[in-house]
């Protein structure tokens, strides 16, 4: 594989890229009412562009030197032993649950019909990974305010078929990891964290994603950092690492890096399955897998983003805190977000649940904001069991989903991403003031 070099021609190209950025790609001035306030958007400078072009000059079109560097740095940031980059957070979720069905886990592997505890208030690919592995999602209701699982209801949801807990940190707000982990340990359940919205969130001063058997992350443009499309799976378990790598890389048994041969020193001296002795190990498949690798160009962008991550997290928290201080005077209209005790969220968005007694409904509020170019979003699926694709899925309900339906009907969220500046915040506040003045006759 060609490595980056410091040739004069390469330096000239990268210098031109830097010049191009400052001449053509610097942020435009925000004009209230004319420039959209996104819920989330990529934030970058010339460094991402330089890395991207630098990687393209190698013309190594799969994972390479930038991916290797990204995995090392990301592992250190989370505090994990192993990081495997993938092509999306959705793929990360699919790999995480698929790995739990691996024969490598022996008696602890998940089999068809086994149950996985989760919530119906979710992004669909959390639940999809369960369904696509012929497992049964068991839905537990959420808490209002945190919009995470009501952990006190988890133990009552466990049956003899329950083998795992798979939960997301909703909008970057950690769920009660201490209690969930206690329950998982008590009943010998696998514990998987969907941290796709929560990169940089902390619980008891440790990063989310560092508490579970497997954790997943997304680097979609609206997330805390971006590679465009992309994601990651992390684990400290060497057996799970082997299963994850195999499933990510076509299901092959070989663990050689792309472009390398013979790492195991037994490439032509193995007997596996019903293949002939000595069949090339690079073409022996021990899992039914996929190709979910990331490209080095994506990883190059991500590596530059990692350098900005701490600053991005601070700016998200600051934007969240400014909005929270503003909305405190409107608590008669909205249920405000509540951070989990012992946590420090890296907020993905600012959720607002419109109270029944507010004098207006969610839809009217959303239309008002969207008409004024302030982007809003629902809480993903709302209640996934009410979505058209999920009407006939095999599942089990552990009690009612009353709070899940309340969130589906009354909740929306707005952005706190690092590109939201003081002018945008002032405009957001002004629009809320105007709407409430129109509907309730007060400032």
Describe the 3D structure.
It is a single chain. The relative contact order is 0.16. This protein has helices spanning 8-24, 46-58, 65-78, 89-99, 124-132, 154-157, 177-186, 238-248, 296-327, 362-371, 402-410, 422-440, and strands at 82-86, 115-118, 136-139, 162-168, 190-194, 202-203, 206-207, 214-218, 231-235, 334-335, 343-344, 349-354, 396-397, 411-415. The longest helix has 32 residues, at 296-327. The chain is an alpha/beta fold and 443 residues long. Helix 1 runs antiparallel to helix 2, helix 2 runs antiparallel to helix 9 and helix 4 (89-99) packs across helix 8. It contains twelve helices and 14 strands. Helices cover 36% and strands 13% of the residues. The strands form three sheets. It has an eight-stranded mixed β-sheet with strand order 1-9-8-5-4-2-3-13, with helices on both faces. Strands 7-6-11 form a three-stranded antiparallel β-sheet, with no helix packed on it.
Our estimate of the beta-strand percent is: 5-15%
**Structural classification:** alpha/beta
Number of helices: 12
* C-alpha end-to-end distance: 63 Å
In which range does the helix fraction lie?
A: 25-40%
**Tally of strands:** 14
Radius of gyration: 23 Å
Mean pLDDT: 96
Largest sheet: 8 strands, mixed
Shape: flat
Main-sheet strand order equals: 1-9-8-5-4-2-3-13
Question: Could you list the spans in which at least 5 consecutive residues all have pLDDT below 50?
Answer: none
Q: What's the order of the H and E elements?
A: HHHEHEHEHEHEEEEEHHEEEHEHEH
